[in-house]
Amino acid sequence: MMHSSRLTRRSVIKGGLGLALATTALTTLGLPLPARAAGKKVIIGAFADGGLTPFKEKIIPLAKEKGFDIEFLEDEYGVTLEKWFADAQSGAGQYDLYLLDDPWVPQFGAANVLEDLGAGGIDATDKDWIGSMIDMGYWPPQQGPRVKGFENAKPTLICVPFVGDLQTLTYRNDVFTGGAPKTWDEVIAKGKEGVAAGKIKYPVVFRGVTGNPIVTSWYPIFLSFGGSFFDDKWNPIFNSAQGKASADFFVGTMKQNTASGVVEFDSDQEGAAILGGDAGAIIQYSGNALKADDPAQTKVAGKLDFGVVPKQEKAIAQMGIFIAGVPKSAPNKANSIEFLKWYVSAETQAKLSEAGSIPVKRSAFGIAKPGNRLIPVALQQLDAGALPRPRTPDWAKVEELLGIELNKALQAGSGGGAALDTAAKQVKDYLTTAGYY
Amino acid sequence: MQAGTQARKYRLQGAGLDLALPYLMLAPGLTIVLGVLVYPLWDGLRASAKAYRYGSPVADVGLQNYLRLWSDAQFLNSLWVTVKFVALSVSFEAVLGFALALFCLHEFRGIRLLRTVLIIPMVVTPVVVAIVFRLIYASDAGMLTALSEAMGGGAVQILGNPLNAFIGLVVLDVWEWTPLMFLILLAGLQSLPHEPFEAARVDGAGAWRVFADLTFPMMRPVLAVAIVLRTIDAFGTFDQVFVLTRGGPGEATRLISIYGYDTAFKFQQTGYAAALFVTIGLVVLALAFSAIRLLRRVDAS
Question: What transmembrane ranges does the database entry give (chain B) (predicted)?
Fold first, then answer.
């Protein structure tokens, strides 16, 4: 006797319910779903940035060969800090690894939401690390002032450097024919000649948007003028004579020699200006610099070179490395730490350098064929001088206050020094409320 | 068998099932309302009385967060920017929406298509609207700059100039939300009784007299509801500013929603941000009640 089966509405509903229940049960119990890919799962959160392109294109496939199942989740820079902090603090466990911007480390460190990677077996004493980079992975910091409540705490390695990004100068070699300009005055003077010759539209282009973008552009100028941000008691001293001179130069001379809409420029407009052939020089991180030789991404391929940032007193750049932390709530914690150990090994770092990204281990800078001309220049910059931003959990607020005042002065085209005075008072008031003194 | 079931039912009724049944039926809905509305509100109120450090509560501070707001220059500036933004946007939207509704009340060829087209902006996602306006306003590659350069002019500065950026934001909001006003007011106009208008026409009243003496007074309650709804909504404007200007240049377009968001999530001052939002909620409620009371008083007189 043949058994006939008929697809009825009831059977479909019953089947669907059964499947839903089974899926829910498996997920709740933390069991892998049958269709899930095999491999050591690592969910990486990152903000969208060209500096991570070599990692995405070359290193993730290598990691897969090593048995890691990488899920790479990207977000816009402006929302990642708040999103990841909420994830870490609520223990939601949406990520195994955050690729943080280095000024965020103190915020995560103070909240005690990241794993101790030293205890996880990552060797921070390896002499191959770039010292200034591995230092940024500690909370509280090993050197420099500490915020209240952490004066006597033992520094813990909560993050490891991931991509050794730092600011360098990108310039047009047909405008600056004698090589990289050594001073800011030279940038402006030779840039004007380039404009007069019709080679470029503006001697220099930078970011002017309020908050993080404008502070990022002003900071290397501030450092090159010899400014310091805080004293060792967290008193703001960025409105020193050097600081004010840098701010006046920035909102005055530099504004007169850049695009008229610079007040609304962020990294995308800045990148478009240099890659599109309009700008003579910019200070930038590696994201756009990596595109400098690709005719598909620049109109001036072959005309862009890299150099150490110009100086007035010193040639110091701002460091802004990608730095990896494992949240305590990570669902695949062991995998993440294993992945990091593999990633920071000298061999993988050499591969990263070959792929064109700035490594975090000194040996990887010296390989025979680095994948990008920027890499040896980045090492020169590190040796010339590169500083991280102050290691305080309140940097986001400090940057916001300063950025607003600098942006207002930039709109006016003058009053940089006065803007720093206003910002310094606001920062002092804020830090007083926050219990710094 | 059936008699037994009947007897059991009656026993249950006797035990109060009839009395409890309405509450049992309400329970799931009520639980959801308590969970997603009342609890977060209560939790926000509790948070507003605490000081937070590094994302965690460290001390009870009573009303200190509320008092601190009124000496916070950034809060006061954001509040002022928001009030200006809401007043300008909602006024333009009300006038334009009313005018469009009056125009579209007439039946003519293509009117249905026109009504549909007019409501398109409000169904577009706010973030998309902001991206489109950014592409229009950008001084380097924006549409306005391209037009200006084609006509021999220079770059048009919208987002880099405080006044222009603020006006640009108002224009965006008016473009997006006038259709909502239009829709509400058109529905109101269509529901008005015909007789008074016919009588006025018979008496020889002109278009302006009909509008001033009949249409506007009869539409006042609908208009008030539309304005109150839009005002409440405009106070919470976030997405468009976040994408278009992020509050800049300077603080020219920093609405209270952006300042509150940054305070809560970027600077992790959760308690202070909670106090800020509670205060704004109360301000909006007060405004709404005042508007309704004013309307009632006008109607009574």
Answer: 21-42, 85-105, 117-137, 165-189, 210-232, 272-295
Distance of alpha carbon A255 from alpha carbon B249, whole angstroms: 15
- Across the strands, what pairs with B59? B51
Residues of A in contact with B239 (CB under 8 A): none
Domain region containing A84: 40-165+320-387
**pLDDT tens-digit map of B139-175:** 888 999 999 999 998 889 999 999 999 999 999 999 9
Q: Are the Cβ atoms of B265 and A264 closer than 8 angstroms?
A: no
Nearest to B250 among A261, A265, A404 (CB): A404
With contact defined as beta carbons under 8 Å apart, do B231 and B57 qualify?
no
Q: Which residues of A touch B265 (CB under 8 A)?
A: 81-82, 85-86
- Ordered DSSP codes for B73-91: HHHHHHHHHHHHHHHHHHH
| A423 in a structural domain | yes
Inter-chain residue contact B266 with A81, CB threshold 8 Å? yes
| Rounded Cα–Cα distance for residues A295 and A292 (Å) | 8
Q: In chain B, which residues fall in CATH 1.10.3720.10?
A: 65-300
Verify that A189 and A288 share a domain, yes or no.
yes
CB contact under 8 A, A407 and B249: yes
d(CA B272, CA B296): 36
CA distance B282 to chain A (A): 26
Name the B residues in 43-82 with CB < 8 Å from any A CB: 53-56, 68
Q: Model confidence over A53-71: pLDDT tens digits?
A: 999 999 999 999 999 999 9
Cα A384 to chain centroid distance, Å, stands at 20
Q: Which CATH number does the domain B65-300 belong to among 1.10.3730.10, 2.140.10.10, 1.10.3720.10, 3.40.390.30?
A: 1.10.3720.10
* C-alpha separations of B273 from B10, B51, B72, B132 in Å: 56, 10, 12, 30
pLDDT tens readout for residues B243-294: 999 998 999 999 999 999 999 988 989 999 999 999 999 988 898 888 778 7
Nearest to B81 by CA among B288, B255, B281: B255
In terms of domains, do A258 and A285 share one? yes
Contact A164, A130 (CB under 8 A): yes
We report the CATH number of the domain holding residue A368 as 3.40.190.10
The DSSP code sequence of A191-231 is HHHHHHTTS-SEEE----STTHHHHHHHHHHHHHTT--SB-
User: Which value does ipTM take for this structure?
Assistant: 0.82
